[in-house]
Amino acid sequence: MKLFTKTILFILFISTIAFSQSVVVNKYFNSGAANGVGDILELLVVQNNLDLRGMIIKDFSSSMANDGGGKYEFKNVSLWQNLRAGTLIILRTDSSAADIEPSDFVIDVGLKHPTYFTHRGGTFDIATIEMVMIKSASSDTTGTGVIGSIHLLAGGTAGAQFTAAPEPKLRATGTSGTDRFVYANNSTSSLSDFNGTDATGNATGLTFGYGNNPSNTSYINSLRGTLPNTTVQFASANQTVNEN
User: Fold this and answer.
1) Span 123-155, pLDDT tens digits
2) 15-22 own/partner pairs: CB under 8 Å, 24+ apart
3) CA 27 centroid distance within chain
4) What is the pLDDT of residues 148-199, one digit of tens each?
5) Residue 70 in contact with residue 125, Cβ under 8 Å?
6) What integer pLDDT is reported at residue 132 of this predicted model?
7) Does the pTM exceed 0.70?
8) N or C: which end of the chain has fewer CB within 10 A?
9) CA 143 to CA 87: how far, in whole Å?
């Protein structure tokens, strides 16, 4: 009986770790331009009615060795309140506001837009070897360090900051050179995929605001409470189909 009880407790503990995220980094892109111009990242909301206000998005410097990247705090505005699970948030390194209507599960806005973000220091500039982190809201608005990390996505050899960061954290062996993506594979269409090494780097051809691949798209649809459309194709114009 004692062994059985311990086993149940262990399973519950593991489940708590694997499903503690409220939002994850789904992919990011390095334009290769100076000072991060043209760099883009994408968050995926996995908790319904999420409140992003006060959370901090940041990157790191020196191939994950140091904490000299850019830090932006989500401002106390209605856009960041009550976000539905399955919402994709596209964040650009500019002051744009291409889509601030979340009803279609997509938001597209610039980190430098003064209405939606507060700059907390540094230059957000995605490098070849990089990690992007979303941190919880707290009284520490500086965004320094890795304490309070909700989730991070990285590409390349793990640096000191990645090692120090708590789980859940996801890393691809491939990097994000010029015009390259790092993205979550989400191979089993579950939240547990966002911890470990189920990610791909040195990638091209992805589109922000959409799933990274069929399994990631399936997971996003499941969060939104939708299922892919079923397509029925007949080999000929006349076909007999049994009842039921």
Assistant:
1) 999 999 999 999 999 867 889 999 999 999 999
2) 17/167, 17/168, 17/195, 18/168, 18/191, 18/192, 18/195, 19/191, 19/192, 20/168, 21/46, 21/47, 21/150, 21/151, 21/168, 21/191, 21/194, 22/46, 22/47, 22/50, 22/150
3) 6
4) 999 999 999 999 999 999 999 999 999 999 999 999 999 999 999 999 999 9
5) yes
6) 98
7) yes
8) C
9) 24
| Backbone dihedral region for residue 191 (phi beyond 0: left; psi -120 to 50: alpha; all else: beta) | alpha
Q: Identify the three-state secondary structure at position 191.
A: helix
Return the closest-CA partner of residue 154 out of 197, 116, 193, 118: 197
CA atoms of 211 and 45, how far apart (whole Å): 13
Q: What is the DSSP letter of 220?
A: H
User: What is the H or E stretch that residue 214 is in?
Assistant: helix 214-224
Give the separation between CA 88 and CA 98, rounded to whole angstroms.
14
Contact 201, 180 (CB under 8 A): yes
Question: How many CB atoms are closer than 10 A to CB 241?
Answer: 7
Most distant pair of Cα atoms in the chain: their distance? 68
State how far the Cα of 155 lies from the Cα of 57, in Å rounded to an integer: 17
pLDDT in tens, 58-76: 999 999 999 999 999 999 9
Q: Chain centroid to CA 76: how far?
A: 21
- Secondary structure (DSSP) of 104-160: GSEEEEETT-TTTEEE-SSB----SSEEEEEE---S-TT--SSTTEEEEEEESS--H
Mean pLDDT, residues 96-115 taken together: 98
- Quote the CA–CA distance of 125 and 167 in Å, as a whole number: 23
